[in-house]
Amino acid sequence: MPAAGLRLRAVSRFFHTPCFPAGAGPDFVNAVVAVESALPPGEILERLHAIERQLGRVREKRWGERSIDLDLLAVGDAVLPDAAVQRRWRELPPGQQAEIAPDQLVLPHPRLQERAFVLVPMRDIMPGWVHPLLGRDVASLCAALPPKDLEQVRPL
């Protein structure tokens, strides 16, 4: 079973959000879950990808249309593979973000702090989680987003 080794601890509300990137398909439903696991981060990500495959996802194009997308956003205060690599991916220019993907797991997710569709659901269940490199909690990261971005994330 793909989810073996993952224990569900909390689930955010479900939110209607515009597809990302724009034009990549229909709008999304986003949520965040917190799980408990003794598995290493890479194995957790592989379990998430196995769930996607079980539900019919085929990865053909980066940020292409998708029926399901399960991301590993963070694992506690882990920074993987290290702070320099995480910072390089976090600061990647927007034009390059859609073109290249890391060949290794990068945690926390490099653009988590920019995305209302991630932070708003995350705020539901873990507003006090602190980004280990930015030193800011989810609530303050969310509050720093443009109001237009926040308005597009609507509870279902």
From TrEMBL:
Recorded family membership: Belongs to the HPPK family.
Enzyme class, broadest EC rank: transferase
Task of the protein: Catalyzes the transfer of pyrophosphate from adenosine triphosphate (ATP) to 6-hydroxymethyl-7,8-dihydropterin, an enzymatic step in folate biosynthesis pathway.
SUPFAM superfamilies tied to this protein: 6-hydroxymethyl-7,8-dihydropterin pyrophosphokinase, HPPK
Record's keyword annotation contains Mitochondrion: no
Protein name: 2-amino-4-hydroxy-6-hydroxymethyldihydropteridine pyrophosphokinase
Entry-linked Gene3D superfamilies: 7,8-Dihydro-6-hydroxymethylpterin-pyrophosphokinase HPPK
One BP annotation, GO: folic acid biosynthetic process
Nucleotide-binding keyword on record: yes
Keywords: ATP-binding, Folate biosynthesis, Kinase, Nucleotide-binding, Transferase
CDD domains noted in UniProt: HPPK
GO molecular function, one term: kinase activity
InterPro entries given in the database record: Hppk, Hppk_sf
EC number: 2.7.6.3
Annotated 7,8-dihydro-6-hydroxymethylpterin-pyrophosphokinase domain residues: 62-73
Pfam families noted in UniProt: HPPK (PF01288)
